[in-house]
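Narrative progress, year one. The postdoctoral researcher (J.K.) led the effort to move from monomer predictions toward full complexes, under supervision of the PI. The following entry was the first complex the group processed end to end, covering 150 residues in total.
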Amino acid sequence: MAAVLLGAIALGVTGIGLGRASAQEMDAATKARVEQFEKGPATIDVSKYPQGMQESYQVFSQKCSQCHKLSRPINSDYVLPDQWSRYIKRMMYKPGSNISGSEAKKIYEFVVYDSSVRKKTALDAKLQTVTPDERKTAEDAIKKVADQNP
Ligand code: HEC
């Protein structure tokens, strides 16, 4: 009986392991991009960021370094609020991500703010490539985050 139970547990664990492994698989192009990101700086100097953002940076640092280096999101080419929102959701729904809704919100606000300051040049360039509607949506979302975190 105990042996059967142990077997079942072992199988269960292997099952989870396999699920994770396949979720980690990336196509070659994504892999190359992501490796470049990971070679960049692994921390952000937030000493001049608003207090709330400095706290959210802690949540970002903890939660977004569980499965890969923090340098991956830090040097990512995502800059638009929509890109971040989509990606944080994607990360959140990965098995074992351990990210709550309120943590996801803090992380979202942090990366949106950070993109508008540290990645301003890239953000401005990106805003030139989207439709006027998309630009307005992005600018409103950035403003909202800034207003909520003075
Ligand atoms: C449960 C594991 C896990 C956690 C937690 C996690 N990630 Fe990821 N991340 C991955 C995997 C796996 C990939 C590979 C590509 C994919 O699946 O999208 C990835 C890829 C990425 C990429 C590169 C995507 C690209 O194609 O440019 C970014 C950026 C990223 N993660 C940001 C984050 C952020 C921000 C957080 C915190 C909210 C986070 N990750 C938390 C597993 C995780």
